[in-house]
């Protein structure tokens, strides 16, 4: 396999073949919106990444892998110095996976298979294909941990979420947010549930966790991150982070240091 380093972050040609291989990418590196004729897996062996589509944003820390089906326009942004692994999935194997962008838990076997696919040259014909089928089998059985932040269609809701994106740490109540965008509190609450599938509180929590992952990956302390993302105290931040990500922020940072060592 030829390891390819991503070029300048400009849009690729529509339905281009996905990049395949490994590259160290600097904090904040972006790949602009593009599509692929095949599916694509992107794994941050260290660091973290966000994948954005018209349906919203998915964030993957180092214990998750992102999946983008064929023909889905998407972009990537990488947080921290990221050991990025990109694997293309042929169309005939894509049918075994979900038909929407998602993020999956990475088992020890899946991690080693992804690293082998992107690290080693193919020594025997068909070896990488056989290993790729193992990856797909693991993903079929893996838990879907989407860390998905959906985006709105309603203009009032889009205006409200835009305000939250600008300052995730703000303590604005739903009623105050409604007054700023010209919608009643009950109307805005209903829109969060009907359009985004979650409450205002839950959506803002996921947004804050997205930012927290970026801060932690870039080396900010747990206490500093909790303040920067709007939590009143580190304990409540640790509880929220653990519930969403599946591990404490301290353990997440320890894992990053382990992968970099």
TrEMBL record:
Entries under SUPFAM superfamilies matching the protein: Homeodomain-like (SSF46689), RmlC-like cupins (SSF51182)
HTH araC/xylS-type domain boundaries: 158-255
Q: Which InterPro entries match?
A: AraC-bd (IPR003313), Homeodomain-like_sf (IPR009057), HTH_AraC (IPR018060), RmlC-like_jellyroll (IPR014710), RmlC_Cupin_sf (IPR011051)
What superkingdom does the record give? Bacteria
Q: In its keyword annotation, does this UniProt entry include Repressor? A: yes
Which SMART domains does its entry note? HTH_ARAC
Do the record's keywords include Cell inner membrane? no
Q: Gene3D superfamilies under this entry? A: Homeodomain-like (1.10.10.60), Jelly Rolls (2.60.120.10)
Keywords (A to Z) from UniProt = DNA-binding, Repressor, Transcription, Transcription regulation
Q: Which GO terms describe its molecular function?
A: DNA-binding transcription factor activity; sequence-specific DNA binding
Q: By what name is this protein known? A: HTH-type transcriptional regulator RipA
Supply the source organism for this entry: Streptomyces sparsogenes DSM 40356
